[in-house]
Design a protein that fits this description.
Number of helices: 15
CATH architecture of the largest domain: Orthogonal Bundle
Oligomer: single chain
Largest sheet: 3 strands, antiparallel
CATH topology of the largest domain: ABC transporter involved in vitamin B12 uptake, BtuC
CATH superfamily of the largest domain: ABC transporter involved in vitamin B12 uptake, BtuC
Number of strands: 3
Radius of gyration: 22 Å
Distance between the termini: 56 Å
Strand content: under 5%
Shape: globular
Length: about 375
């Protein structure tokens, strides 16, 4: 029985950053094992394994689990961390199990799953468009969901659907509008961004008009959802989001290899046999589905889809935002922001979107400065 073929290959991105380029005719410079990539071939599967990225995902997963459990300890009835872990397994005091599993677990799961969805969706959009500013926040998807929810609350168009269904419908309709307007014998990432920004402002203006037109009660209810909020989440919000991620996350991973060919440009990708427009549409639908279900469950939590992929990319030192690490980073950001929102002011639970907005705005400014310097050659 032959052993699986494992061959070490140098990562081009790491070589250019961490080691000097080798001279012509000389072997490539050696890299620390943590920065190398390994081609693993185990029929019928094969792929590239990066130890640094694997280690990063492990650290992010542990941090996410700790924050997840820590959030379950907080409330009017404080629970010890160890008791929370036991209660998650159904052991311990029956009262503690009831509080953890029935009252607090849905909120924590919505934060976890929404964070993963925001991070993966942002990674898909940024890789597809080859632009770090391309996220659902910037191209109108979350704003479209917000407009649909506010219209339902203010104008009575909800027809009993609720904010979750309205947000989902609004995000999907906005994505369709952006794609149609950006189509001209195909689409490009540049056109999607430009059209998305215009649609984003249009939706924001419509939302402001509806808020001004509505009554005080409707405006207050709409505002509580628009900032992104995990307060009062139940299993009704958790189950659809979990089912959607069970379908869309594997699809995101399967599209990963095709997604990387788009990094080479449309002409090169076409030359390699990639159906560019079909792949771009598939990625767009997958990313829209993730952001739509996450926004419907938690509201338009600001900047997570923008910041999480960029943080993960710099931690992993890859040429593009890594999908799994971006999702775990998004979950870490949402859960951490929710902890801050619940504890920063004693006796008050702030919406999680306020905290992510405060933390994400500096990252947006930093990305804009970097893009400006790159464009000016500075």
């Amino acid at each position: 029985m032959t052993e699986p073929a494992v061959r070490a290959v140098g990562s081009p991105v790491v070589e250019s950053v961490n080691s000097p380029a080798g001279k012509a005719g000389s072997p490539p410079p050696s890299l620390p094992s943590a920065f190398r990539a390994y081609r693993l071939a185990v029929p019928p599967l094969s792929g590239i394994v990066r130890p640094r990225l694997v280690a990063l995902c492990g650290v992010l997963a542990v941090g996410t689990f700790l924050l997840f459990c820590w959030g379950l300890t907080i409330g009017d009835y404080p629970i010890a961390f160890a008791d929370v872990v036991r209660a998650l397994g159904g052991a311990g005091d029956p009262g503690t199990v009831l509080v953890v599993q029935d009252l607090r677990l849905p909120r924590a799961l919505v934060g976890l799953l929404a964070g993963v969805a925001f991070g993966v969706s942002g990674a898909l959009f940024q890789t597809m468009t080859r632009n770090p500013l391309a996220s659902p926040d910037m191209i109108g998807l979350t704003q479209g969901a917000g407009t649909a929810v506010v219209a339902g609350l203010v104008l009575g168009w909800d027809a009993g659907l609720g904010t979750q269904s309205l947000g989902l419908a609004g995000a999907l309709a906005t994505a369709l509008l952006v794609y149609v307007l950006a189509w001209r014998r195909g689409t490009t990432g540049y056109r999607i961004i430009l059209v998305g920004i215009g649609v984003s402002w249009m939706c924001s203006s419509a939302t402001d008009y509806l808020m001004a037109k509505g009554g005080r009660f409707e405006a207050q209810a709409a505002l509580g959802w628009l900032v992104g909020n995990l307060n009062g989440r139940t299993w009704d919000e958790t189950r659809p989001l979990a089912v959607a991620l069970a379908v869309l996350l594997p699809a995101s991973l399967l599209l990963g290899r095709l997604l990387r060919t788009l990094q080479l440009g449309d002409d090169v990708a076409t030359g390699l046999g990639t159906r560019v427009q079909f792949v771009r549409l598939s990625i767009l639908l997958t990313g829209v589905g993730l952001i739509a279900f996450a926004t419907a469950a938690a509201g338009p939590v600001a900047f997570v889809a923008l910041a999480a992929p960029q943080i993960a990319q710099r931690l992993a030192r890859t040429a593009w935002p890594p999908t799994v690490a971006s999702g775990l980073t998004g979950a870490l950001v949402v859960l951490g922001s929710d902890l801050i929102a619940r504890t920063v002011i004693s006796g008050t639970e702030l919406p999680v979107g306020i905290v992510t907005g405060v933390l994400g705005a500096p990252i947006l400014l930093w990305l804009l400065v970097r893009a400006n310097r790159a464009g000016s050659g500075g």
